[in-house]
Specification:
Blueprint lengths: L4 H27 L3 H14 L1 H14 L5 H13 L3 H10 L7 H13 L3 H14 L4 H14 L3 H14 L4 H13 L3 H12 L5 H17 L3 H14 L4 H13 L3 H15 L3 H13 L3 H14 L4 H13 L3 H30 L3 H13 L3 H12 L2
Helix pairs in contact: 2-3, 3-4, 4-5, 4-6, 6-7, 6-8, 7-8, 8-9, 9-10, 10-11, 11-12, 12-13, 12-14, 13-14, 14-15, 15-16, 16-17, 17-18, 18-19, 19-20, 20-21
Length: 388
């Protein structure tokens, strides 16, 4: 059968149209963005517009038939940015994480830390910590405070020391470690750490503060000789401030130079009489000089200023005993002992919580801190309880 001219022309046009469509479809198929390109584009867009990046990550996951952990955690990061933590953490925990890029895990860990999702943050960052790659330092810097938030003190110390080993010029980490060692009364370790920090040429303002801390810790360890040596260096590097002279008072007193200590504290007292430590220092000197009436006045003022100061009650009890005010001495001894016992209990509870977090433990910690008048500590644990 022979086609007429009009029919032949129509047939040719149909054939040409089919060829054109096939060509366009083929070009689209071969030129469409692959999953990796969609992920890269989405990550670049996320910085400016997280909502606009979301469909790109979804497309990338579809290209991989629903199995593309890098794009899936990128979606978790977007949910995190919008505060959708239930969705973000649920999706994160369901992922196969071994193949996820370290930078994306660090991103999620950082967002989770900012959102107070500490366990999720730690779970992501520990993977990167164990890889020991280019992102490990960034992970450790977030892990350090995250560990402390959940009471994992040994892990906090390890992470902080590891950051310091890798980046010794990060003096914020030195400072965190030093404060931790002080809070756990590891004075000898604190002295070693302070000396190490000073050996890395810290900025001027940091150097002076570290020198102050070093003298204080040397005094705490009873090393008067080294304390005097470091004080001389500090005196050359800083102004003649009440804080500097207060250290000198302690040095004179611990060296048995009580008259000199009293002279210095009398000089600076008009500038420090609003500070509890000023009354403690002067009271101790009066006590050592057997000026018990004057010592009692200073310790009484100290107790008024800090009613939950265990040492203040014990010093006042000792002074009242020597003044033959026995009933008052017994009363303040009991108050001091009660405060000491509460502090032991709260430290034990914090250690217990670090091993097995329980709401009942949190409640008891909050209760004891409130009884001790430590408002900031109680508030901190109330916030932890709200995020439990």
């Amino acid at each position: 059968m022979t086609l007429t001219a009009p029919k032949r022309e129509v047939t040719i046009r149909i054939i040409m149209l089919c060829i054109a469509c096939s060509t366009v479809l083929g070009l689209w198929f071969w030129s469409r963005p692959d999953a990796a390109t969609l992920l890269t584009t989405g990550l670049e867009m996320e910085v400016r517009d997280p909502a606009a990046a979301r469909p790109l990550f979804v497309q990338a996951i579809t290209r991989k038939n629903g199995d593309f952990p890098d794009a899936q955690i990128a979606l978790c990061n977007i949910e995190a940015q919008f505060g959708n933590w239930s969705e973000a953490t649920s999706s994160f925990h369901s992922l196969e994480k071994t193949s996820i890029r370290s930078d994306l895990l660090v991103r999620f860990g950082h967002l989770a830390y900012q959102g107070k999702q500490y366990e999720a943050s730690i779970a992501a960052l520990e993977i990167v910590r164990n890889r020991d790659d280019d992102e490990t330092l960034a992970a450790l810097k977030i892990l350090s405070p995250a560990y402390r938030e959940v009471g994992r003190q040994k892990d906090f110390e390890f992470a902080t020391r590891e950051v310091i080993r890798r980046a010794p010029q990060d003096f914020s980490m030195w400072w965190s470690l030093i404060q931790y060692l002080k809070s756990t009364f590891r004075n000898a370790d604190c002295v070693i750490t302070l000396r190490e920090a000073l050996s890395h040429n810290p900025p001027r303002e940091f150097e002076v503060e570290l020198q102050f801390q070093l003298v204080e810790q040397l005094l705490a360890t009873g090393n008067k000789k080294e304390a005097w040596k470091e004080y001389t260096i500090l005196e050359e590097n800083s102004d003649r401030s009440p804080r500097l002279l207060t250290l000198k008072v302690d040095l004179h007193r611990l060296s048995g130079q009580l008259t000199e200590a009293l002279q210095v504290i009398t000089e600076i007292f008009p500038y420090t009489n609003h500070l509890p430590d000023a009354y403690l220092a002067r009271g101790v000197i009066h006590f050592d000089l057997h000026n018990f009436e004057k010592a009692a006045q200073d310790f009484e003022r100290l107790v008024q200023m800090q009613p939950h100061n265990e040492r203040a009650h014990h010093k006042l009890a000792d002074t009242y005993r020597l003044l033959d005010r026995l009933e008052a001495s017994v009363h303040h001894r009991k108050l001091g002992n009660d405060i000491r016992e509460k502090r032991r209990n709260v430290n034990s509870l914090i250690e217990q919580y670090s091993k097995s977090p329980q709401r009942e433990t949190q409640s008891r910690i909050i209760e004891i801190y409130s009884e001790l008048g430590e408002v900031e500590a109680a508030q901190y644990w109330k916030q932890k309880s709200a995020n439990f």
